[in-house]
Design a protein that fits this description.
single chain
Length: 185
Amino acid sequence: MSEQQQRTADRTAKTPRGTREGTRDDEAVSQFVERFAAQLVDAGMQRMSARVFACLLASDSGVLTSAELGERLQVSPAAVSGAIRYLSQVDMVSREREPGSRRDRYRVHSDQWYEALARRDNVLTRWEGTLREGVESLGEDSPAGRRMGETLVFFEFLQTELAGLLQRWREHRDQIRAEFDAAGR
């Protein structure tokens, strides 16, 4: 077993079985949500969007209504609405209708980080096209053209590496899930 696999196994072995949100230490969960949200803000995410995302991530179901988010975060429905709008635009949460109701539920998916990175492939492709145009318009021998060309090469490299990285992650994730299922967790 690799060192990474051992660390993952150690973490999952320490996770209590059958944990339900009702038996959790609500204060500890709230502190986690705020701490993780602060780290997301430090990385560039909007504050309320980070809090809503962390709250969804910390819920067992990964699904909460606007009212539930507002209650847990002690914020207004308008604040939740703005955060959800941003998170939906960047594909970090999805909106679904509560069966038999007019209320929306918001879902964070277990593979959302993977999906977010996979969608960045389209962004990188667009950036590469624009950077190529920039190199041509600036002239590849000019200082700005060389700088732009190096940026283009970086994004081409990143896109190639990202494809391999995502493939390795899918294989690793599938192995971890199989080990988790085999352990009966």
